Amino acid sequence: MGVIPADSERQRHPPEVRRRLILGAARRCIAARGLEGTTIREIAKEAGISIGTITYHFRGVQEILAEALREASEDFTKRFLEEADSQAGARNRLRYIVDVNLPVDEERRALWRLWLELWAKASRDPSLAEVHSERHAYERDAIAEIVDQAVHRGELKPADGAAFALNFLGLLDGLGLQALIGDKGVGVDTARTALYSMIDTSLNWRDPEVAVAQPLAVVRSDLG
Predict the structure, then answer these.
(1) Under DSSP, is residue 205 helix (H, G, I), strand (E, B) or coil?
(2) What is d(CA 92, CA 176) in angstroms, rounded to the nearest whole number?
(3) Three-state DSSP class for 156?
(4) 122-129, long-range: CB within 8 Å, 24+ apart, which pairs?
(5) Is pLDDT above 90 for 199?
(6) Distances 125 to 65, 121, 224 between C-alpha atoms, Å
């Protein structure tokens, strides 16, 4: 880590820039140490600033964690949804979302372990619960929009996009978690097959031909 800059040097940055520097350091700490290992002291060390500078901008570590996780979640979700839009047809867009979200490699397993920590802590911390709620609401809305647009374009017969999104993300979370922890009956391939089947059978596609699955996408974590 760099030498802690003097106060006069830190003051050259506007407050918003300093906040973003702190949040960037927090995201790197979370990626390396998890939520429990991310403290104000560790964030200050990573950012190369004093603890006092951090406490000037944030009320405490929980506020930093919530903001850093919100940023990471928004960045990851927006990017994979934008990439999904490049797929041909709604069925392949939904399959792409399955592919990039399952814990298929160490990078995404690390991200799943982080979200598992978040789920556990969110049950006791309102600020983290809000991040969790925002993330899922944003994803449900995006999935529902894919379905609604497919109906509008004639790919699907009339369907309840919001209901599908709720069930789809619930199944993705549940099967993804089982695959992550090494459930003997639910590996990544089993989870993918079940989710593809849900896409194919729970929506009334006008074209009965099952689309060819897209290759697994490589998506980096937005925490580091």
Answers:
(1) strand
(2) 19
(3) strand
(4) 125/62, 127/62, 127/63, 127/65, 127/66, 128/62, 128/65, 128/66, 128/69
(5) yes
(6) 11, 6, 24
Over 70: is that where the pLDDT of 128 sits?
yes
Evaluate if residue 192 carries a pLDDT over 70: yes
Phi and psi, residue 137, nearest 5°: -65, -45
Mean pLDDT in the chain?
84
Q: How many residues can be counted in the chain?
A: 224
Q: Classify residue 211 by its DSSP letter.
A: P
State the average pLDDT over residues 187-202: 95
* 10 pLDDT above the threshold of 70: no
**In this model, does residue 7 exceed pLDDT 70?**
no
Decide: 47 and 22 in contact? Cβ < 8 Å.
Answer: yes
Q: How far is CA 7 from the centre of its chain?
A: 35
Packed helices 126-153 and 106-122: angle between N→C axes, nearest 10 degrees: 120
Radius of gyration of the chain (CA): 20
Cβ–Cβ < 8 Å for 84, 97: yes
What are 156's strand-pairing partners? 205
